[in-house]
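Appendix B. Raw example, untouched.
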Amino acid sequence: MTAAPGRALWSGWPGDPNRFLATIQIGITLAGFLASATAAVSLAEPLVPLLEFFGGAANAVAVALVTIVLTFLTLVFGELAPKRLAMQYSLRWALLVARPLDVLSAVSRPAVWALSASTNLVVRLFGGKPDADSEQMSPEELHELVGAQRGLNAEQRMIITGALEIHERRLREVLVPRRSVVTLAAEVDVASARAELAASGHSRAPVARGGHLDDVVGVVHLRDLLHDRGGVAELARPAVVFPDSVRVSDALRRFKAEREQMALVVDEHGAVAGIVTLEDLLEEIVGEIYDETDRDVMAVRAAEDGSLVLPGTFPIHDLVDVGVELPDEPDGDYATIAGLVLVLLGHVPEAPGERVRVSGWTIEVLAVEHHAITSVCLRRDRDGSGEEQVRGDLKGDGDQGVDPGGDRGQ
């Protein structure tokens, strides 16, 4: 397959920005100079007889009128319209002008060299480095650039944005907390373990002595439990372990290199904070991958008044999937709706009923177990008021069958 002629010409320009910029500037300067000179000679003089009522100022008025008209035409046809067209059809126009630009560069090579040398000298005088690359685009600028691309649909923008964000996100933000992890006791027989794992709706689970995550033997897959021979501990394979400070992007590379789909996540003290799966990490890029075993989604209950009942473990960054956006959420080291409530309250609630407001939503604590918020209710404020802490009793929806142990995909 042969590349378009313009592609080969353009391939050399990025490595020599001085040549590119100097050639462009020479073309712009020559066009402006020739247009001005031509207009002054050929256009202004024929207008003088028509402006005789200005007397001796007729020539000056003619030049001024020609300059104004020429400036208008130059801005529209020489600057604004071409730039707008180039932004909309960048590749097509780049290939179209590649050959003329290359010819202009060859013809004006001496002038380009002189301009480049002079530019390098001035850059050095101001403390710059002529050979240095331009500053890298910040993540915020990349986000704005993606959002401004009208040719991308919402799903494409979400995937690109997710790919940009995984480098900033840590495992502690996406893990399944330990209290929500389905764990198989190393002492149980294979048949019991198979029944327990199948009932949980997951395909793999950690195997731990006494069922305690701090004493993990390994990870077992449902297919390993198909035959009733050997013990569960004997069938478990060594578990991959990640610190909770690892970036999502780095964890994805480790999963790919080790061909694993589940890992234990430990905190700075060495205690198991939870688990993370390959599906969890991929969902950070492509969005939620829902199936019949996704407890987070299954646990959400919507009432007729528009309120939502969620498990406390519901991930903050998944709220948009249920129609909740919290642009004013406070900064903090939390990843779940329960963590957000704790940050806003400033203390651990001892009983249901406490409420907070954020971004036009009221969040009420519906259930608390062992100092953990296990269920909350979200209601949109009618007045759209801002963030404010409130205490009181709302008419709760706690009887709607919330699964307080809702967890993400294992």
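End of appendix B.
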